Amino acid sequence: MPELPEVEVVRRGLEAHVVGTTIESVDVLHPRAVRRHFAGGKDLIGQLRGRQISSAERRGKYLWLPLEPRDVAIVVHLGMSGQMLVQPPAVPDEKHLRIRARLDNGADLRFVDQRTFGGWALATLQDVDGSIVPVPVAHIARDPVDPLFDAEAVVSVLRAKQTEIKRAILDQTVLSGVGNIYADEALWRAKIHGNRIAETLTRPALRRLLVATQAVMGEALAQGGTSFDALYVNVNGESGYFDRSLDAYGQEGRPCSRCGSPIRREKFMNRSSYSCPKCQPRPRADRS
What we know:
By secondary structure, this protein is of the alpha+beta class. The protein has 6 helices and 12 strands.
């Protein structure tokens, strides 16, 4: 699933290519792509036709396009394989094209989704702590690259968590935008094992982890995000290159770039965690 850097790359592309345009027509080509819009596909089409896209916004992994007048927004769920592409109409339809919006600048805004876990829905906008967000996003915490991100407040929240630190930073109500890839990378940089209990970590250690999270996200953004296959691309269909800079995630058996120890892989929440056995020792209770 795309994480914050990948979604931000898509947001920037939408900001450059579709903001200020008016939606002339919409085709819903697969019913699952609008299943979160409970009024149905015909209602979505009717409400979008003639509306202007006023901006492209994001919080964590959540992406939305507010419409004029700014009362509602298209909330875009990328899911596991969703792509937002801006294409000339002459370009043939993609195999997994689910929604097509024809814009008044002559371009198509296309939602392509191989696995059909994603989709579009319209949602009302509301003010939450000084930011205007869609109702389904209201419970999502600010992310590490948000100008209003309060690191000390997040440290306090983490210090009260009686759960593994990796599980805590994956909680989108605590810290949004972090997924499995960047959690492993930030924990490696901070020299913290993901199984450490959050409340046992000192404030300096948690601050170090948040700084590492911000740094790795910034570097990933500069390289267009992380792409392991053709499912994540930006609005022009291009892949990101941060996977070439990963120090922990997916590096099982390779030497740690800091100490040379082979990176290990462990099971975590039906996924995998990658860490250095020397730089990130397991908590004592977990050692075998």
